[in-house]
Design goal:
Blueprint (H helix, E strand, L loop, with lengths): L11 E3 L4 E3 L1 H18 L8 E5 L4 H14 L6 E8 L6 H15 L3 E5 H5 L3 H7 L4 H19 L4 E3 L4 H14 L2 H4 L16 E3 L7 H10 L16 H16 L3 H19 L6 E2 L6 E2 L5 H10 L1
Parallel strand pairs: 3-4, 3-6, 4-5, 6-7
Antiparallel strand pairs: 1-2, 8-9
Helix pairs in contact: 1-9, 2-9, 7-10, 7-11
The structure holds iron/sulfur cluster and zinc ion.
Iron/sulfur cluster binds next to helix 6.
Length: about 300
């Protein structure tokens, strides 16, 4: 089949749109989409110093690659890569290696921090001690450390690699769990409560579906790690939600975009509910928290006892 925009061979059919894309038109379209997300939502502006959370996986690698493409010659925007090593043998070590290759290739400064050094244990060690809950703990510790390190490195924004599927999965899961505060955080720049220690999060890839992120990565030959975390079984709800979304998209192309748009509308109403919510500072570590003692300090205490 030919590309809908030129005479070249098509490599992708975008079912929800009805267009065929050759390699060249496909990558241009993805980059345009990301640029539009950034510009329309003012995700990156003059004076920003952006920390890009680079795990070494395809989404975060694509995020770094595109931000580098768009802003490498910008005189008023700085960016760097921020990589966390949770200590998962056979997985994260390989991803960290790939992330180093990418940063070297692009000439982007990279900072790497390990759970072992920062918290005193690896996720492998935690998984040996806990029967379950280590995946949730890993996510909690990662969000905490990313925010802390981004701030300490002078970042004004923290870019993550969340794609459209990740966002849609979170929307469904938060709805199922009745977590309306999290539901209100949907969107490319979800900053609800203000706190001097909070670095504003941005999601430049939020309009890019999973399969398009994979294809973009492949066509652009961006170094990244294709491996799946061996502990993802510890979060079965996400796995099931992913499958559910996939089957919905097969029968109703474009459903992910309409779910996302609906959630954005809902979020603007829900946000009102939480407008007066104050974010405190954790009494132990000083980081932002909705409680007296933050979840991370509580968790760290619980595993010591
Ligand atoms: Fe950590 Fe869970 Fe992600 Fe694995 S899947 S890296 S354990 S949050
Ligand atoms: Zn704390």
């Amino acid at each position: 089949m030919k590309c809908s925009f030129c005479d070249r061979e098509a490599v992708y059919f975008r079912k929800y749109e009805g267009h065929y894309y050759c390699k060249g038109h496909f990558v241009k379209n993805i980059e345009k989409k990301v640029r539009r997300t950034i510009n329309r939502n003012k995700l990156i502006e003059d004076g920003d110093r952006v920390a890009i959370a680079l795990s070494g996986g395809k989404d975060s690698s694509n995020t770094l690659f595109i931000i580098n493409k768009l802003f490498k010659d910008h005189p008023k925007v700085e960016f760097f890569a921020l990589t966390l090593d949770e200590g998962i043998k056979g997985y994260r070590d390989k991803c960290v290696k790939k992330s180093k290759v990418l940063c070297k290739e692009l000439g982007v400064e990279q900072f790497i921090f390990s759970f072992k050094k920062e918290f005193g244990f690896t996720i492998d060690e935690l998984a040996e001690r806990l029967e379950t809950g280590f995946c949730g703990a890993c996510g909690l510790l990662r969000r905490y450390l990313l925010n802390k390190k981004a701030r300490e490195l002078g970042a004004t924004k923290l870019a993550t690699g969340h794609n459209l599927d990740d966002e849609c999965q979170s929307i469904i899961m938060n709805f199922l769990k009745g977590d309306f505060l999290r539901l209100a955080r949907v969107g490319p720049m979800p900053h609800l409560a203000k706190h001097p220690r909070f670095v504003v999060r941005i999601k430049p890839l939020i309009q890019v579906p999973e399969e398009e992120s994979i294809l973009y990565n492949k066509i652009r030959k961006i170094p990244s790690c294709p491996k799946k975390c061996p502990y993802s079984f510890d979060n079965p709800l996400r796995g099931k939600t992913r499958e559910f979304l996939k089957s919905l998209e097969e029968t109703s192309p474009g459903i992910r975009y309409s779910l996302y748009e609906s959630a954005l509308k809902l979020a603007s109403l829900v946000k009102e509910e939480f407008k007066s919510e104050k974010i405190k500072s954790c009494k132990e570590c000083g980081e932002p928290s909705s409680r007296e003692i933050c979840k991370v300090c509580e968790f760290l205490k619980s595993i010591k006892s």
